[in-house]
Amino acid sequence: MSRLREGGWLKLFHSEEGAMATDYEQAIYNKLGINFEILNAQQIQILEPALKHIYGSALHIKDAVSVDHPGEVTQSYINLFVKLGGQVIRDGIQSLSIEGNQVALHGQKSYLADKVVLAAGPWSNDLLKCVSKPIPMCFERGYHRHYQFPEGPRLTRPIYDVDSAFVLTPTTQGYRLTSGSELNDKTAPDSFVQLDKVSISAQQSTYLGAPIENTEWRGNRPTLPDSLPAIGPCPNQDNIWLAFGHQHIGFSTGPATGRLIAEMISQQPTFIDASPFSPARFY
């Protein structure tokens, strides 16, 4: 995949002792065989010359991968789906109803389906409540903004400044700066307070160009009480399946969820144990 980068990513700490305080995290990496390295200030500069000299230690998680344009990756999946015989209908479905042994989807037109997978992220409950009890959900709203690349060295991998709580990653659209999560309703007004604050910290970390106009973004990331997604059949509706609640990691777990739900619907052996994700735990 042309969009994939395999250089890992950096968790950066301002102090020399910061990376040493991650014993539990390191134990998990060692248990799972994930390749990582603890870096000192000099090694950080060698690996990423674009960083300013403010970091005393880092974890370089070498087995992590990233992409430089998530939207193009998503479009590639859509293109593959169509190539394999799928059909994309953009109709703004507003509600569902049960019509005999089928599910009716109502938008500008109405559609009938033998089975429906609800994978509408933060809007999934809006549709689920038409035919069943909704699942408890809150929203980890996230924000980002793009900045032009500066003259001179650029970052070559995503960085996470642990002390200042921001992530900065190079993309095809410039640097993408991301702040922490905002717990709020999905319809609440936008609030860029966190993003504005971490933009100051990011300028202290590396050289950023000017903000790129019209690149501010806010997403409503669906979160369930136990931090696990709901993947599986709706307990009281045999022809409705659920696949949502991935918090802010849906981009990476989405493909695995697609495979898992397909195996379950087609009654094939699943490649992992699906029981922890069963929607029945909320009913």
UniProtKB/TrEMBL annotation:
Residues 4-264 form the FAD dependent oxidoreductase domain. InterPro entries: FAD-dep_OxRdtase, FAD/NAD-bd_sf. Keywords: Oxidoreductase. Signal peptide: none annotated. It comes from the Bacteria. Pfam families: DAO. PANTHER family: GLYCINE OXIDASE (PTHR13847:SF289), SARCOSINE DEHYDROGENASE-RELATED (PTHR13847). This is FAD-dependent oxidoreductase. It comes from Marinomonas phaeophyticola.
